Design the sequence.
């Protein structure tokens, strides 16, 4: 949970109130909580400024009324109303002069509040929500709503806070005008116009907030529309959209989705905003009309002085204008607070249950290798690939076991893993192979603790993994996902991600890049490791798919050097051909010899050199053993291996000449790969 947020209290509205009132109270409380994020000096300064801006027009009314009242005397040779003129001029000039400062104060308030709440949103999105949460529609809607509040397409929570403060000016002005009407015309008409003004205002705010609530229920549609708009105007699918002739379809789909979202929204707006407006206008007419009638009567009967007439006339107009839309507050508080509401709901989601107890001492990064952890594959120093630095394996974590593990993604969904038993011996490589949908990536998610088993348990060195803090385990495991992220950051940052302390440790970064076979490529970039890996930036440069894979591998190598003890490679080789993939995995196995590692692959021929191979089928272990044992078994592995090996051999001929379309042409490791026939023996 973010630390800077006010303590998450459940909606503190008294039960039993009508929903409309509860919503209003909730919004007031939310606005007050946002204002509490401000430095007291900023809050006091901005409030004083708004009060001044609100009251100056009242000073102007009073001064001009004195001026008007003094005019007849001045015409007959009496003294000129110099003081009143000066006060009116000063009030007018000051009002104009303060306007930019008022805007500035609003900007400062908004920036300060947004700074805090954006940090809260990031903490919530990146830390407070787990992978399962991020697949829930409700959570995605709330996230979109909260994020929308910060992308400046709609008002932000900070602007809602600034808009709330700006109301001070409006209400101070209303109070000032009512006082002038009271003094000049009488307290009953003053009460009447003020009550009418407040009634109109309440009606209008209520309609706006009901509209906001109705709009908030349509976040799912808005998200779909935003996706289509981004797809149609962004660069993500630009190539495919053209190649597949998707442009007309996208345009039509966008129009249809826009209608699906906008038409009900427009209808709601008509229902909630326009119709009540007629009733509210009638209330305003009654209140203002009554006061004006009294004024006219008083004028005709000469019971009011010119000063009273002038002051009351000007002052009555202020409450009559009070029922209008406030451009400095209304949209800001409406949408900005909706975004803040969404963020608050996310923050208040029940936190994940903490682990039963802390990690046992021998399993912490600082604790060194547990008894069971001695690498079985010999000293890492012997496992150095050609030209590379020794692979500094982190302390092995002990045998990792999936014990009778079953898993389903949703409570009402089918099991995708069924009573799975899987053992990952320390210091050994285990390949998990299987056809599409067999459950391989699900195993990775469980190992990485992005998900927890529905039944059964995972143990590390005999200790239930669920008893260890997730963050601790994440430091001990380096995963390269199928869809690993390509960050538009420098090469050095891309490698150091997750290990920020090592960002400035150039030798460590270079060693990791070297081990992953990408150092030469990165050194050749315009700014070496300081080059941004994206052509969207000046001086930046993009990499090929295979080079990106090596950057991801370098990230894992760095994690390993920094104490990670389990490496997981979830088939990040989708765009490699069969031969380059085999070469990639071979290199991976070489440079990680002596490290506990898991390789996921659906090409059986790619991972034959792993110490142990597990064949998954329909979420169950179908076969397991070494490559030779599995071939001797002559079962599913042998059948699929031979089928894929035939393709591999057939593919080898065209690749005898380096193919520029695949990355391995530029990759010394790939070119060093054994001839296909030999590799398959
Ligand atoms: N987030 C999810 N929600 C619901 N079901 C899912 C989710 N992810 C995967 N599945 C289902 O779980 C099963 C196993 O998927 P998984 O991704 O683990 O397979 P895989 O062996 O890695 O496949 P591939 O080789 O295609 O990557 C599939 O039936 C899939 O549809």
Sequence:
């Amino acid at each position: 949970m973010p630390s800077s947020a006010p303590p998450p209290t459940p909606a503190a509205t008294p039960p039993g109130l009508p929903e409309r009132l509860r919503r209003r109270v909730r919004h007031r409380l939310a606005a007050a909580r946002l204002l509490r994020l401000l430095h007291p000096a900023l809050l006091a300064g901005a409030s004083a400024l708004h009060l001044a801006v609100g009251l100056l027009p009242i000073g102007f009314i009073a001064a001009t009324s004195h001026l008007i009242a003094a005019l007849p005397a001045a015409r007959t040779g009496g003294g000129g109303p110099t003081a009143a003129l000066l006060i009116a001029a000063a009030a007018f000039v000051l009002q104009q002069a303060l306007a930019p400062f008022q805007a500035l104060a609003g900007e400062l308030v908004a920036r300060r509040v947004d700074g805090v709440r954006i940090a809260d949103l990031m903490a919530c999105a990146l830390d407070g929500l787990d992978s399962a949460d991020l697949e829930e529609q409700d959570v995605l809607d709330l996230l979109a709503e909260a994020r929308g509040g910060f992308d400046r397409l709609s008002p932000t929570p900070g602007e809602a806070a600034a808009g709330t403060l700006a109301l001070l000016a409006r209400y101070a002005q209303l109070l000032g005008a009512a006082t002038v009407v009271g003094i000049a015309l009488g307290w009953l008409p003053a009460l009447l116009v003020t009550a009418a003004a407040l009634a109109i205002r309440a009606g209008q705010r209520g309609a706006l907030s009901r509209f906001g609530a109705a709009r908030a229920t349509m976040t799912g549609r808005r998200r779909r529309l935003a996706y289509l708009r981004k797809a149609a105007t962004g660069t993500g699918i630009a190539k495919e959209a053209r190649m597949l002739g998707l442009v007309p379809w996208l345009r039509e789909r966008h129009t249809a989705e826009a209608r699906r979202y906008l038409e009900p929204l427009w209808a709601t707006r008509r229902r909630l905003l326009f119709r009540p407006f007629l009733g509210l206008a009638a209330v305003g007419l009654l209140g203002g009309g009554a006061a004006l009638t009294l004024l006219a009567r008083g004028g005709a009967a000469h019971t009011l002085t010119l000063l009273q007439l002038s002051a009351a006339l000007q002052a009555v107009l202020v409450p009559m204008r009070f029922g209008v839309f406030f451009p400095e507050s209304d949209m800001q508080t409406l949408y900005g607070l909706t975004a803040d509401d969404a963020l608050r709901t996310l923050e208040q989601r029940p936190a994940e249950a903490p682990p039963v107890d802390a990690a046992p001492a021998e399993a912490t990064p600082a604790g060194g290798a547990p008894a069971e952890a001695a690498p079985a594959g010999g000293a890492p120093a012997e496992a150095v690939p050609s030209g590379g630095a020794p692979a500094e394996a982190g302390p092995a974590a002990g045998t990792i076991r999936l014990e009778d593990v079953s898993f389903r993604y949703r409570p009402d969904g089918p099991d995708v893993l069924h009573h799975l038993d899987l053992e990952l011996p320390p210091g050994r490589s285990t390949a998990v192979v299987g056809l599409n949908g067999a459950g391989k990536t699900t195993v990775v998610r469980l190992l990485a603790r992005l998900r927890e088993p529905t039944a059964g348990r995972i143990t590390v060195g005999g200790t239930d993994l669920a008893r260890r803090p997730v963050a601790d385990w994440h430091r001990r495991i380096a995963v390269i996902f199928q869809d690993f992220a390509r960050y538009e950051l420098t090469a050095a940052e891309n490698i150091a991600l997750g290990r920020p302390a090592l960002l400035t440790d150039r030798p460590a970064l270079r060693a990791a890049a070297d081990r992953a076979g990408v150092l030469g490529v990165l050194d050749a970039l315009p700014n070496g490791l300081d080059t941004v890996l994206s052509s969207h930036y000046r001086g930046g440069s993009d990499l090929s798919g295979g080079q990106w894979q090596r950057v991801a591998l370098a990230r894992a190598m760095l994690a390993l050097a920094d104490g990670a003890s389990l490496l997981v490679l979830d088939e990040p080789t989708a765009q490699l051909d069969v031969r380059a993939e085999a070469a990639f995995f071979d290199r991976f196995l070489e440079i990680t010899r002596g490290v506990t590692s898991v390789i996921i692959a659906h090409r059986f021929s790619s991972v034959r050199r792993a110490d142990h191979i597990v064949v998954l089928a329909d979420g169950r272990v179908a076969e397991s053993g070494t490559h030779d044992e599995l071939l001797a078994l002559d079962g599913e592995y042998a059948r699929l291996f031979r089928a894929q090996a035939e393709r591999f051999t057939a593919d080898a001929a065209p690749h005898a000449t380096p193919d520029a379309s695949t990355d391995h042409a530029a990759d010394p490791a790939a070119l060093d790969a054994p001839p296909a026939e030999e590799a398959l023996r």
Notes: The chain has two domains: 19-204+286-347, 361-484+565-680. The pocket of adenosine-5'-triphosphate is lined by residues 135, 409, 416, 434, 436-442, 602 (CB under 6 Å).
